[in-house]
Amino acid sequence: MAAVDAVDDDVSLNTLVLDVLACAQKLPTLNAQSDEYKECRKSGLVKARTAEALTRRLGLLSDGEHHTEHSAQTLRCLLLPVLEAEFLSRDFADPRDPERDEKRIRNLKLCLEQLKHFLMSMINFGFDFAPRESLEYYVELQPGQKRDREAKMAHLTATKAADATLKEFTAQMEAAGGESADEELVLQHTLALLHFHTLKAMEQVEMVGVEMDMLEKMAAMRMQRGPAAAMAPPEPPKGKPEKPLVLTADMVKQMTLSGETVNRSNFKLITKGWGRIGAPTMSLEEVAAKEIKQAQEAQARSDEAERERAAIDPDSEEAIEAERQKALSMDEWHDTHKRGEGNRYNKG
Q1: Cβ of 320: how many Cβ atoms within 10 Å?
Q2: Mean of the pLDDT values across residues 253-262?
């Protein structure tokens, strides 16, 4: 087996993989509109593809091998496809680009290929982070397909637990000096990385597939209107935007006395026999004063209720009886309102 650091230009493959990991961890913390974000994403993608090419050239990983035959540094190379997918999924074209959706679809297809390639590696190398049938389900998942809610909740719980384990091993690694830590600790940290990214990749397969399916349907609808409409960029609004209409107290009084209504661009308010629909009855100042008064009254009622609750001893007979009556009323309500029956629309 070739050594993991036997590469040219005095740059070890292990260092390259660590750089890719660092870019992937840094990217979500940056502003997506900043130059630093774009440079970090581009640099991470280039390094990930370079590291993948070196891994293939060195023949470090072959189908049929078991993960226990490899060192932690070699196992990290299995992360390269899922990290490349992370960089691809965060590549967004300019909204004004007429080909933005086509470019996004191409990126999502590449992203989906890398995610499924990573999940197949987890199967081929005998990892037990998830049942084999679950991994195969996501490898074969078609764009647009979704899991049921219970499966999503169970997966979210497992992902949170894996993330907590990864953070624990990361803290131990940092305390022990990073890559110079004990070999067993480095291996456990690498396995925790693979576990977390396996669960994350399973979720991303569905999310990327749903987005790609939606964009492809939108593109098909645009093509039905003709190629010119499909490729045309969005038209900018014509003319200057209208200034916002601000009603003052004097305007309201004038309209009340004269019977006039607001008339913008010769738009006449409709009369239904009971007055002009939409005719203002209050100025903005009056509306603001009314809302402030309502908020103050609501806050006063809340404070009064809180004082009443604080004045009652929770262990007193009065408090216990109040809780009993509350529980009794809820039981009576549940007797006539079955779970899940929803609004019966007065049908009994």
Answers
A1: 12
A2: 67
